[in-house]
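Chapter summary example.
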Amino acid sequence: MAYQNLGGPDVKAAELAQVGAILGPVIPLLVWLNRRNEEPISARDAASATNFGTFVLVAFLPATVLRLYAPWLGWVGAILQVMIVVIAIVLCLQAYGSVKKGVPAQYPVEIPLLRR
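The structure predicted for these 116 residues follows.
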């Protein structure tokens, strides 16, 4: 299923949500809240990005706790933090590329908070 209009505000909002998911679920959530009743394409992609951003946040928090409060395993937490950030960047950029081509974004792992 491809989008009809590849350059309109609907697709631009979906692209913003995918790139914003790198930083966590806040930017995609704001896009979803803004577009959920008007533009179903960007709302669906923003919901997907919000769900993935939530997963990234939930995965990042235990790594941070491990790094801060377990001094003998702090290096493991630091490595996990870097890995989570790199994987999030790669997956968000892949989703951005999909949306830019007109294909709905797909993430391998999501925490289903928002319905698409």
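To summarize the output: The chain has one domain: 9-101.
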